[in-house]
């Protein structure tokens, strides 16, 4: 088989051979070589002989992972490109080992029609460094657009169930019931109940308190999250909907989700890297740089999220990358926008937690690659398998990466992890068989594709 494969590739246009890697895939770690021909993994074997024309990568001592599939990013294009854009943020993503992403609809104008959705695909086709898909945003009156979504072409519909602005806020019960009943694609939700947040604001205001960043988890508290997420889960059970609840932040919400493998689940949950790293104790040092919605909460909540990863109550880890300019963040608390720039350092933060024995490599791969691929039915991605697209990241678990604002690739020019040295390094990233990051620089190649789904 190996000899025949090697004889057959001589006429192929492009071949890469990754030698001596520790491959992390489907719960196992094993040493092998990987042969990439054009866009796909052609062969995985213990010792593949190199051809003269091969691009050979010696991966000795390093781990080869399937690239992260980030199911929640905000790349800010169109309309908010002073904060970020598809080109800059996807460039930072591949430097961080993210090979595919699914981007949110709260841009300007909001992505609430099929026409606007397809325009974003056109932009990404020209500019994106990583593979891409985009969510349609639900409103209280665009059910006709939601029903036109194609399960093979579109990743899902995003429902902001509170805590949003403009027409993307959906709180009307009849509209929500119709979406959960009629959507032909996966429903993903931002769950914070606006009524609870308003009551918290009123209660603290009556106490004569001026708000600061340390009040953020009090205003957007556990109950605001739980009331909204429990409502979403209730609707999904009522209509047998496919529901994915984004960025869970509280221990209380975990009671809503079932433990066990993701296969066969109708209702799944996600945690984000910053909620697995920071706690409310970090507000004093980081200030508005870690202001996000839902808020970063208590250490006990963070620890419960990590335990839920082990229990498989939380199925997916994502970023919720949401850049703002440093000037926008360096204002008083109430005027500062919510959101963190994360894609370049998300996987590194998880690898650091592996070295700290809080997670293991197989779990990180499962939650960042395998499970997103399964939940969204992403075609031929998320695993290191022969015949699959070669979306790969090579990591050195014994090297280090120091984060500064200056070496961050985000358009906004800052990272909430600035000052942190992670105990791992991204050595290389491949998208569809092409190396797009060499451990030092993002390479001037465009290999990305529109994601497709098999549902």
Structure notes:
It is a single chain. This protein is 28% helix and 21% strand. It has helices spanning 2-8, 86-95, 114-127, 143-146, 173-182, 194-206, 216-219, 222-239, 283-286, 299-311, 326-329, 346-355, 361-376, and strands spanning 15-25, 28-37, 40-45, 55-58, 63-66, 68-73, 98-103, 131-134, 136-137, 157-161, 187-191, 243-245, 267-272, 316-318, 392-396, 401-402, 421-422, 425-431, 434-437. It is of the alpha/beta class and 455 residues long. Strands 1, 2, 3, 4, 5, 15, 18 and 19 form an 8-stranded mixed beta sheet that branches. Strands 9-10-11-12-13-14 form a 6-stranded parallel beta sheet. Strands 6-7-8 form a 3-stranded parallel beta sheet.
Mean pLDDT across the residues is 95
Tell me the overall shape: globular
Write down the Rg: 21 Å
Individual helix count: 13
In total, the number of strands is 19
Q: Could you give a short account of the major beta sheet?
A: 8 strands, mixed
Low-confidence stretches: 1-12
Helix content: 25-40%
Distance between the termini: 32 Å
What is the strand content?
15-25%
Output the structural class: alpha/beta
């Amino acid at each position: 088989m190996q000899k025949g494969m090697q004889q057959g590739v001589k006429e192929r246009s492009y071949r890469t051979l990754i030698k001596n890697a520790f491959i992390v895939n489907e719960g196992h770690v094993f040493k092998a070589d990987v042969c990439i021909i054009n866009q796909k993994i052609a062969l995985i074997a213990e010792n593949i002989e190199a051809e003269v024309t091969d691009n050979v990568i010696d991966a000795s001592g390093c781990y080869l992972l399937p690239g992260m599939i980030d199911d929640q990013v905000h790349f800010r294009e169109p309309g908010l490109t002073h904060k970020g854009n598809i080109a800059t943020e996807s460039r930072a993503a591949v430097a961080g080992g993210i090979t595919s992403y699914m981007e949110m609809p709260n841009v300007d104008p909001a992505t609430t029609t099929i026409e606007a959705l397809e325009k974003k695909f056109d932009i990404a086709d020209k500019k994106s460094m990583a593979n891409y898909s985009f969510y349609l945003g639900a409103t209280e009156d665009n059910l006709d657009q939601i029903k036109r979504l194609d399960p093979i072409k579109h990743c899902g519909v995003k429902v902001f169930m509170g805590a949003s602005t403009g027409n993307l806020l959906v709180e009307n019960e009849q509209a929500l019931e119709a979406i959960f009943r009629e959507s032909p694609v996966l429903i993903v939700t931002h769950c914070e109940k606006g009524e609870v947040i308003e009551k918290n604001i009123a209660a603290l205001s009556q106490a004569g308190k001026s708000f600061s960043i340390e009040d953020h988890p009090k205003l957007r508290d556990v109950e605001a999250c739980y009331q909204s997420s429990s409502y979403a889960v209730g609707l999904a059970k009522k209509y047998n909907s496919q529901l994915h609840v984004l960025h869970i932040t509280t221990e209380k919400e975990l009671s809503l989700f079932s433990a066990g493998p993701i296969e066969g689940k109708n209702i799944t949950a996600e945690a984000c890297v910053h909620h697995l790293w920071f706690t409310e104790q970090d507000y004093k040092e980081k200030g508005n740089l870690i202001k996000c919605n839902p808020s970063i909460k208590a250490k006990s909540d963070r620890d419960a999220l990590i335990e839920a990863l082990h229990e498989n109550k939380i199925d997916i880890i994502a970023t919720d990358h949401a850049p703002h300019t440093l000037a926008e963040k360096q204002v008083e608390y109430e005027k500062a926008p919510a959101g963190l720039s994360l894609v370049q350092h998300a996987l590194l933060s998880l690898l650091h937690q592996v070295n700290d024995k809080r997670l293991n490599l197989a779990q990180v791969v499962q939650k960042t690659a395998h499970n997103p691929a399964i939940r969204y039915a992403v075609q031929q991605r998320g695993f290191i398998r022969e015949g699959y697209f070669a979306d790969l990241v090579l990591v050195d678990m014994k090297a280090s990466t120091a984060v500064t604002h200056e070496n961050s690739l985000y358009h906004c020019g800052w990272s909430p992890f600035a000052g942190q040295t992670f105990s791992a390094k991204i050595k290389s990233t491949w998208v569809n068989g092409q190396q797009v990051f060499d451990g030092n620089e993002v390479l001037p190649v465009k290999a990305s594709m529109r994601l497709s789904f098999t549902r």
